[in-house]
Backbone:
């Protein structure tokens, strides 16, 4: 199985070009094997580049544990770089079908290379049932108490097509993410599990964030997580509508426009190409 490894500010994924590699495989099992950082290539998950009947391309994304996610913001930027630089499209702005809906990346070019990608992630979903989160439908979850491991946390919930719960902290580096992250992810309030972000507000235009990603654990960055964190920060009156998010892997710039749409801008990098020889074809 031929692959390309790419990352967006440290959030790394293995890409399979299904235009050339085929479209019928046991993708969850491949995701588990190839993502393993000791016995595989090593990544936060697997992303498939597919044809679409609704858009220019289709993206499927699998976490490192084999579960399928709705969308990945950092993964989308690398997806856009891949298809543009390989001549799969001549458009600088195009549409990608995902389980979270149609996502629209726009590549920024210098000397024929993609230097950054601005992604229209659409509108955040804020009602409890859209997260989804247990409780009365139609309500927003803003600064709401949530008991985790006997401790009450004040949380704000946002869906960017995938579920996020944001907690504000005084020192993001001091969060024991390896311990608390799984407890948030598996909390019974979230029937589809949840991505958990811990945010330190630095000023009106900057925040620092760390994430425990559903199905993958600690990652160096998250595009949808950064977006959800900015939305939560705005809803709680802590920041303006254009914010730089400082992540362990680098920075992302998030805008929540007056049209209610979220735009994320950041880099994408290619790491290597190769052949995963361990994989034996397993048609589903």
Residues:
């Amino acid at each position: 199985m031929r692959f390309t490894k790419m990352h967006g500010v440290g959030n790394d994924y293995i890409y399979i070009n299904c235009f050339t590699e085929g479209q019928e495989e046991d993708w969850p099992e491949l995701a588990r094997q190839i993502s393993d950082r000791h016995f595989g290539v090593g990544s936060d998950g697997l992303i498939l580049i597919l044809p679409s009947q609704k858009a220019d391309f289709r993206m499927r994304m699998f976490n490192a544990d084999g579960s399928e996610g709705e969308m990945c913001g950092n993964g989308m930027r690398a997806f856009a770089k891949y298809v543009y630089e390989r001549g799969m499209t001549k458009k600088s702005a195009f549409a990608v079908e995902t389980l979270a809906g149609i996502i629209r990346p726009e590549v920024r070019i210098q000397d024929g290379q993609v230097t950054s990608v601005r992604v229209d992630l659409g509108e955040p979903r804020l009602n409890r049932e859209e997260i989804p989160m247990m409780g009365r439908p139609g309500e927003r979850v803003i600064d709401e108490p949530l008991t985790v491991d006997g401790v009450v946390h004040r949380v704000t919930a946002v869906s960017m097509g995938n579920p996020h719960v944001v907690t504000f902290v005084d020192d993001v580096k001091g969060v024991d993410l390896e311990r608390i992250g799984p407890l948030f992810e598996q909390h019974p309030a979230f029937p589809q599990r949840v991505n958990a972000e811990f945010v330190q507000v630095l000023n009106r235009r900057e925040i620092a964030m760390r994430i425990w990603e559903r199905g993958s654990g600690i990652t160096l960055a998250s595009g949808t997580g950064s977006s959800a964190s900015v939305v939560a920060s705005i809803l709680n009156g802590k920041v303006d509508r254009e914010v730089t998010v400082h992540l362990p892997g680098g920075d992302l710039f998030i805008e929540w426009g007056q049209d209610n749409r979220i735009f994320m801008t950041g880099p994408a990098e290619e790491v290597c190409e190769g052949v995963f020889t361990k994989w034996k074809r397993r048609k589903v």
